[in-house]
Every structure is written in C-alpha cells, then in structure tokens.
Amino acid sequence: MKAALIISLALAAGAAQAGRSCEPKPPEAINVQRAMTLAQHTAAALDASGAQVVLLARAGQDLSKYGLAWSHLGIAYREGTRWRVVHKLNACGTARAEVYRQGLGEFFLDDLHEYKAGFVVPEPGLQAKLLPLLRDNAQATRLHSSAYSMVAYPWAQRYQQSNQWAIETLALASAPQVSSRERAQAWLKFSGYEPTVLHLGPLTRLGARATAANIAFDDHPNEKRFSDRIETVTVDSVFAWLNRSGLGAPLQTVR
C-alpha cells in the first residue's frame, strides 16, 4: 500500500533533505547537542502553547538574500506527552521525495544553518481537523506527489516541494470539497494564500537546473519564468497567510 511505504522511520543521516546540504558527512557532536537542546526548548514551548497541532519550521539554509527566515515546514502534533512531526523530505541527489514521521530531535538533527525554530498555532477548529488526518497514514499522504522540485510552481501539479505538501495538506483538512491537489490549490487561492516571488535571472536558473536534479522550472508559466519571476511556496509566505487570514496565531520563535 502506497501510504504504508511513504510514512516511515527517519532516514539515516544524509539520505534525505529539505533546506540543507546533502554532503555525506557524519554529524558533529556540537551540532547534535544544539539540535537536542533546540528540540527540548521547542517541546517546552509547544506544551506551553496548549496546542494539539502546530505548523513548525526550521532554518536549514541561509535564505536571507531572498528575504526569507525559514527553509522547511512540517506539521507537528501531540501524541500523548510527545510531539511528532510529519513532513516531506527530498532524497539527496534525486528529483523524488517522500513523507516522513519523526520526533522533534530528528526534525532538528539536520546540520541547520541556524539553531532556531518557528511555529504558528492554527485556530482550534483547524487543529481539530488536522489531528486525525496526521495520525492516519493514508490521509496524511493523500495529496502527496513524489515528483519533487525545490521551486515547484504553487498552482501546478507536475512537482511538489516540501512546503507545498504541508499547505496542500492543510487545505485538505480545511475543506470537505478538497479531494485533489488541483482543488487544494484552488481553495488556497480562494483563501488568499500568496506565494513568494523569487527574482532569478536566466543564468541562475540555467545553472541550478544543470547542476541539481531537484530543481526544475518547466512547470512555471513562460510569461513569469522568462521575466525572472519564480513563484514558489515558502515557509515565510505560509506563516504570513495564516496570520493574515485568521487561520493561525502570530509566529513564535524558539532558540
């Protein structure tokens, strides 16, 4: 069964990534310590929030040149006294990705650019809809597509990047009429979600496409791509939309 294959234990270090380097190197002891400390602080903050479900971000890469603070988004939920994170990871060196269920320590044990976390608490009604979905393997992967591009176009279905899976899954939980990626994207448009626009010139696009299997631009409309406007789903844009729409509380940061 597809869902049973996709939801799995954490991969060995270096086997999958989202927003970090794929260099095959063992984690340094200081970084393991930092990750575990961040996981502990995050668990305490999530407990104090009173939430059952949160949108949780990490800073795996330095994206400040694009005006972005966060690189990767997962959906965390309370399971008894522990927190689990469901999120999508790209298999290193490939254009494929799968969905994983991990603990907070595993989520942050990822050679981060900056050891900080950000989370947004969805409004209670949305939490109540997300919680059973996240616990169900088939539902959690219902809108998952393994074809991956780091800059997937938000309004197309050829590829799906990690943040895009998260927001489309949120749409699935929010509206009973959402039964496909196309309908999820229509709901997100109707609900006022606005993607980030990256200004990438032709040489940057060509270099990225030629050297990275997980970057593609052929799902973007020509009129936008050839005017150097690449729209994609970013954590920052998701957090801004949740706050703007009233679907989520203001961002909280943990260090």
Notable characteristics:
two-stranded antiparallel sheet, 20% strand, globular
Helices and strands in order:
Blueprint: H1 2-6, E1 16-17, H2 29-49, E2 53-59, E3 72-79, E4 82-91, E5 97-103, H3 104-108, E6 114-120, H4 124-135, H5 137-140, H6 162-174, H7 181-190, E7 196-199, H8 202-211, H9 222-225, E8 229-232, H10 235-245, E9 252-254
Helix pairs in contact: 6-7
Describe this structure in words.
- There is one protein chain.
- With 255 residues, this protein is α+β, with helices and mostly antiparallel strands.
- It has one domain (2-254).
- It has helices at residues 2-6, 29-49, 104-108, 124-135, 137-140, 162-174, 181-190, 202-211, 222-225, 235-245, and strands at residues 16-17, 53-59, 72-79, 82-91, 97-103, 114-120, 196-199, 229-232, 252-254.
- Strands 1, 2, 3, 4, 5, 6 and 9 form a 7-stranded antiparallel beta sheet that branches.
